[in-house]
């Protein structure tokens, strides 16, 4: 199964077997709406058949006009025949236009249905992929894949499958009609086809290769813009506008240079193809004119040949577009399906049941964990038990594995050794939905959605009554602040909560978590941006409700967890000390050294 890097790596070569398999999958998606597919194909056949009638009718009209001029005695009959042909041409064009509308409408409808299905499947897959996947994948790359690549797949029905039908009719039947009418003129009229088909295919393949590279460069460009907008306050604070502009200009100029190269390829090859067509038309006029003067063919027949050539010019050029459509769909589709086919690292086990909470005992049993792709274990032999009503504190140096312990409990990642159980139930054997209702973590990153304060707080329980939302806000020491706002809980926060302070954002996430009333509540350094007085009030409120759940607090500041029933000092992925605040101070080890450093920094550390 491909890695995230392999999925996003631009490539212009895929094996014919995998490309054919991708084409089959896209075609199968199109046939989910068989009625639309049949109408689109049927309309294409009828429209192209009617278009092939036009040169024959125009040739007949020319011959009728010549008869009218050369034989005045039969002027009335010739005029009547000419009018009949004119009305027939008009009717054919109207009918062709009508069926072309059906062709375009239904082929586009099929494509949009394919796009709709793929977008839903893609977005659903993104929601279910593990934290490990998102740790290694840039969000800008995922957006590019879900837009540009998916759009290329969506267009395949109209630019690939329908175009096959259209070109088969026009080139196949049109070529047969030319050759069967006059072999020499037919060969001359079709002489431009091999050259144009070759140059068109080469051009489109070159454009496809440069398009893939352009897509990659545009992805870099969007990534630069996304990071700039996400960190716009940092940019302004450090007066880094010149640096950011230079970085964006480099990425933009790289994309512009390739865009100019694509224009050059298209213009040069279009000129060559047009020249070959004009040469072929000149030969038909020269040889055909001689045949007319020798009475071997009529002027109308020559006119039919020229009209056929004009009609065939665009379909022949589209051969290259057809090749490009298949190649582009094979490449882009392979990347889209590679993501859709990824095995989920975190998923429900076969026969998984909802977690049943009785005693509310959380247990780590010799747990080890290594991040995907890492060469060194993050956790080794971690074991502890937490009972309902207990508060467990986790502290230690940065990178020691504290947050990893917190992330393993709701199965953001799966343990690589040992087991985590709740009331004796291995968390890998229960449903994810029930586990993540029972275990809720307040993340370090206080992410808020661009919506009202009420919707942000009630995100986990959208149908909660206002009283419950207000209670959760009060517990997070946020209710009084919201009450001072003109719109109250209907106030809309800015993107990612930019209109709130860091402490207010963290209190919002705490209130959002308290709404769910979980059996295991995890605070992953979630009060770091909150002032000491507010943190004390939040802690007091949470302590009053602690008897209902297991509370785990990950922190760097001792003040945040000194009240815990048991404190675990984590270092290098192992629990090296544990006990109450007083017991750890009396032990005189690492915890005591950290305490003296934070609480009494003016005194030398023993």
From TrEMBL:
Boundaries of every ABC transporter domain copy: 362-597
Subcellular location: Cell membrane
Cited InterPro entries: AAA+_ATPase (IPR003593), ABC1_TM_dom (IPR011527), ABC1_TM_sf (IPR036640), ABC_transporter-like_ATP-bd (IPR003439), ABC_transporter-like_CS (IPR017871), P-loop_NTPase (IPR027417), Type_1_exporter (IPR039421)
SMART domains associated with the record: AAA
CDD domains xref list: ABC_6TM_YknU_like
GO cellular component assignments: plasma membrane
TM regions (residue ranges): 35-57, 77-95, 155-177, 183-202, 272-291, 297-316
Source taxon at top rank: Bacteria
First-listed, main subcellular location of the protein, grouped into a coarse class: membrane
Keywords associated with the record: ATP-binding, Cell membrane, Membrane, Nucleotide-binding, Transmembrane, Transmembrane helix, Transport
GO function terms (MF aspect): ABC-type oligopeptide transporter activity; ATP binding; ATP hydrolysis activity
A Pfam family of this chain: ABC_membrane
Domain ABC transmembrane type-1 residues, every copy: 38-328
Membrane topology term: Multi-pass membrane protein
Protein name in UniProt: ABC transporter ATP-binding protein/permease
Organism this protein belongs to: Gymnodinialimonas phycosphaerae
